[in-house]
Structure to design on (391 residues):
C-alpha cells in the first residue's frame, strides 16, 4: 500500500478513537441533572464525574506511559480502547454513584495514555513536513466530539436515560477498537522501557518546563470563559436555550477550522506561529469582554465565534513543540514528555475553570474573558522568553 494512504488510514483510526475519548470527557456535563436525580446526590457531588475524570487523565498520562514503554504500540492502542470501553460500560451499569465514579476513573486512565501515545504515532507515520498537520488530524477527533458527540450523547440521555449515553460512547469506542485493529501498523517504533530518571531529566530541563507552563496557561485561558459560555450567551446576548445549542455547534465548527489551520501553520517555525496565535487569542478574549459590555447580540455572536476560531488553534503546535524539544534535549523520553504535556492540557482546563469560577463569584461573570486574557498574556511572555533562548 502507498505510504501516504497507509499513514492517512492510521490517522483516521486515531481520529475515530479520539472522537470516542473526546465524547466521554465532557458527556457528564450534559447528564448532571439526570445523575443528580438518579443517585440523589448534590450537584457538587455529581460534578465529581468531571473533575475526577480530569484528575485521572492528569495522573494516568505520565504514569501509564512509564508502565507501558516496552509494549508494542498497536497492542497498547488495542488495550487502551478495551479499557476505555470497559470504563464506560461500568459507568453505564453502575448501581451506585461510587461505581459510576469508578467507571469514570477507568475511562480517564485510557484517555490520558491514549493522548500521549497517539500523538507520537501520528508524528511517526508521516513525513517530517506533515507532523503538526498529522497531530491536528488526530485532535480533530476530539474537536468533532465537542461539536457532535457531546450534544448527541446528551440528547440520547434526555430521550432515554443517562445510562444509554455511556452505552452510546462504548459503541463508538468499539468502532475505534476495530479501526485500530485493522488500520494501525504493527511495526511502529517502540520507545522501550521508560527510565524513571526521565522524569528528572524532563523537569530539570528549563525549555521543557516552560513549554508545559505555556500549554497550561495558553490553552487553559480559554476555559475561564468557555466553562460559562452558556450563561454568557443567555444573560448578555439574549439567546434562548435552543438557540444556545445551535451557537455551541457553530462554535465547535469554528474550533475545528481553527485546529486545522493551526496544524498547517505550526509545521514550520512552531514557536513564532504559537506567539502569533496567542496574541490573536488574547485579542479575541478582550473583544469578547467589550461585546459583553455592549450586550449586542450580533457583536456578541461574532466574539464567541472568533473565540472558537482561536481557542484550540494552538493545540497541534503546543504538542509538536514539546515533541521537538524532547527530540533535542531528552531523546530517550519523548513519549513521557508528550504524556506530561497532555497532563498540562488538563491542568490548564482545571486552572481556567477555577479562575473563571473565582472571577464569577468575586467580580461577576462579565469579567471572565479578561481573566482568561491574563492567563494567555502570561503564556505570550513565556513564549517570548523561549524564543530568545532559541536564538
Amino acid at each position: 500500500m502507498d505510504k501516504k494512504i497507509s499513514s492517512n488510514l492510521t490517522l483516521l483510526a486515531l481520529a475515530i478513537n479520539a472522537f470516542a475519548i473526546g465524547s466521554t470527557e465532557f458527556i457528564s456535563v450534559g447528564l448532571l441533572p439526570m445523575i443528580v436525580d438518579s443517585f440523589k446526590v448534590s450537584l457538587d457531588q455529581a460534578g465529581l464525574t468531571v473533575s475526577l475524570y480530569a484528575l485521572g487523565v492528569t495522573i494516568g498520562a505520565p504514569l501509564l506511559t512509564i508502565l507501558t514503554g516496552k509494549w508494542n504500540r498497536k497492542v497498547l492502542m488495542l488495550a487502551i480502547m478495551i479499557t476505555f470501553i470497559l470504563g464506560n460500560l461500568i459507568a453505564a451499569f453502575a448501581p451506585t454513584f461510587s461505581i459510576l465514579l469508578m467507571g469514570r476513573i477507568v475511562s480517564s486512565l485510557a484517555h490520558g495514555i491514549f493522548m500521549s501515545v497517539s500523538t507520537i504515532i501520528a508524528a511517526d507515520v508521516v513525513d517530517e513536513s506533515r507532523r503538526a498537520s498529522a497531530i491536528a488530524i488526530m485532535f480533530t477527533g476530539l474537536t468533532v466530539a465537542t461539536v457532535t458527540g457531546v450534544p448527541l450523547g446528551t440528547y440520547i440521555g434526555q430521550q432515554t436515560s443517562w445510562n444509554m449515553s455511556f452505552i452510546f460512547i462504548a459503541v463508538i469506542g468499539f468502532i475505534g477498537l476495530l479501526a485500530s485493529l485493522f488500520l494501525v501498523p504493527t511495526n511502529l517504533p517502540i520507545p522501550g522501557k521508560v527510565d524513571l530518571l526521565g522524569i528528572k531529566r524532563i523537569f530539570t530541563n528549563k525549555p521543557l518546563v516552560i513549554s508545559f507552563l505555556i500549554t497550561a496557561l495558553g490553552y487553559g485561558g480559554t476555559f475561564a470563559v468557555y466553562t460559562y459560555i452558556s450563561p454568557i450567551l443567555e444573560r448578555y446576548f439574549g439567546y434562548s436555550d435552543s438557540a444556545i445549542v445551535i451557537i455551541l455547534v457553530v462554535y465547535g465548527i469554528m474550533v475545528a477550522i481553527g485546529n486545522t489551520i493551526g496544524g498547517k501553520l505550526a509545521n514550520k517555525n512552531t514557536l513564532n506561529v504559537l506567539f502569533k496565535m496567542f496574541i490573536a487569542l488574547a485579542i479575541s478574549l478582550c473583544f469578547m469582554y467589550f461585546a459583553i459590555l455592549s450586550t449586542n447580540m450580533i457583536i456578541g455572536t461574532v466574539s464567541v465565534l472568533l473565540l472558537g476560531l482561536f481557542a484550540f488553534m494552538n493545540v497541534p503546535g503546543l504538542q509538536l513543540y514539546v515533541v521537538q524539544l524532547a527530540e533535542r534535549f531528552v531523546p530517550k523520553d519523548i513519549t513521557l514528555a508528550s504524556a506530561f504535556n497532555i497532563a498540562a492540557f488538563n491542568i490548564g482546563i482545571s486552572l481556567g475553570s477555577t479562575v473563571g469560577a473565582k472571577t464569577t463569584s468575586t467580580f461577576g461573570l462579565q469579567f471572565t474573558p479578561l481573566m482568561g486574557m491574563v492567563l494567555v498574556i502570561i503564556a505570550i511572555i513565556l513564549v517570548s522568553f523561549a524564543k530568545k533562548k532559541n536564538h
